[in-house]
Amino acid sequence: MIKAYDVRGVVGEQIDASLVRELGAALARLLRTESAETGVVVVGHDMRPSSPELVDAFADGVAAHGLDVVNIGLASTDMLYFASGALDVPGAMFTASHNPAKYNGIKLCRAGAAPIGADTGLATIREAVEQGVPAPAPGTVPGTVEKRDMLLDYAAYLCGLVDLSTSRPLRVVVDAGNGMAGHTVPEVFAGLPLEVVPLYFELDGTFPNHEANPLDPANLVDLQKAVVAEGADIGLAFDGDADRCFVIDERGEPVSPSAITGLVAVRELAKSPGSSVIHNLITSHAVPEIVTEHGGTPMRTRVGHSYIKQVMAETGAVFGGEHSAHYYFRDFWRADSGLLAALHVLAALGESDGPLSVLMADYERYCASGEVNSTVADARGKIAEIKERYGTRAGVTTDELDGLTVALPDGSWFNLRPSNTEPLLRLNVEAADAERMAGLRDEVLAAVRA
Questions:
Q1: Where in the sequence numbering do the catalytic residues fall?
Q2: Cys staple from 431: which of 29, 98, 292, 437, with CB 3.0 to 4.6 Å?
C-alpha cells in the first residue's frame, strides 16, 4: 500500500481516513525534523468520491503537528506540482491516477515538486505509521487549513511557456475520460485559437464511459472515432489525474509517445541550444537520433519518474520523455505535465501548413511493439536465460541498466523488464519495419513463455 514512490490502495480496505491522518502526521514530523520551523504543505485531489474525506483527514494530521495546509481542491497532478513549485512548499496529491474507481492514493513531493520516494523520505514515513506516529510535542501550536483556488494561476503559467498566438485555428477533440482534464483543459485552452470538441468532461470518479487509462488501446477507440467523424486536426486523451497525454492524428491513428518526445525535444532545444534531453531506455532509438541532429545531448535512463527527475536535476536537462507518455520540463520544476506537452504539440501543428500525420512523419522512424506482458514463475531466471540465448551471438550487445536490453546487428532491439509488483516480464521490441518487429517479438515471446 505504501509503495516505492507513492501510496495506493483500495479505499476502505487498504486506505481510509484513519490511515491517511497518520500519513499526514508522519509527513509533518519528517518535515519538522528536517527544519525546526513551522511550514506549509499544499494538498489537492482528483474527482474520486473518496478524495475529499481523505484530504480532510490528511490535513488534520499535518495541522496537528504544527504545519499549515493550503488546500487547492480539485486539481490534476501537474496542477499540484505547479502549486508546490510556485509556493515553494511540499505537496500531497490525492489520486490513484488511472486505477479503477475503488482505488485512491497519495503522491508526495518536497518543495519545488521534488519527488518523495522510498530513498527520500517515504520509507521513514512508512516506518512511523507502522510503529505508530507519536502525539504532537507538548506546546505544539496546531497549524491552519486554508482553501485556495490556483487553477487560473496554473493555466496562466502553462500558457506563458508555450506561445500559440500565431497558430492557425485548430479543431481539437479532447477525451478527458471523466478525469481531471475535464477541470483543467477548459481553463488552459480558453482564449486560444482552438475549437474544442469535449468527450467525457464530466468529473466522475466511477469512470462510467471507459477507464481513464489511455495506455490501453481500448480506451482510445471513442476518441479515434470522434476525431474522424468531427474532421478534427488532432485528438488528445488524458489519464485520470491528467499528468499523461496521448495524441491521435487526423486519420484517427495514435502518435507514439516517442514521437511526441522527439517533437517536444526539438522545440525545447530551439529555446535552449546544446542542452541535454532525457529519454528512458524504452523510448524509440529515433529519440536520441533526433536530439543529436538538433544539437542536443541525449541521456538514457531507467524507466520511472524518480530516475528521470534525478538525472534532470543533476544535468540541468531541458526536457525528458518516457514511452508511457510522461513528459518532464525543466521550466516546470522538472515535473511531468501532460497538458504542457499537449500545448507544445498544438503549437507545432498550428505553425505548420499540413496535417499532424505529415508533421510527425520524421519522428516516427521505426516500428515498435508496445509493451507485451508475460506471466513467468522466475523473472530473473528467465532474463538470465534470454541473455545467454542472445548475448553470445556475433554483433549483439547487451546491457542491464533496467532489466535486459539486447541490441542486434541490424539495428533492432528489445528490452525485458520484471514488474515490481507482479510475476510478469514486460517486453518492448523495436525494428526498422513491422515485419521485422513482429518476427523478433514473436521469437522472444516464444523463448520467454517456453
A1: 97
A2: 437
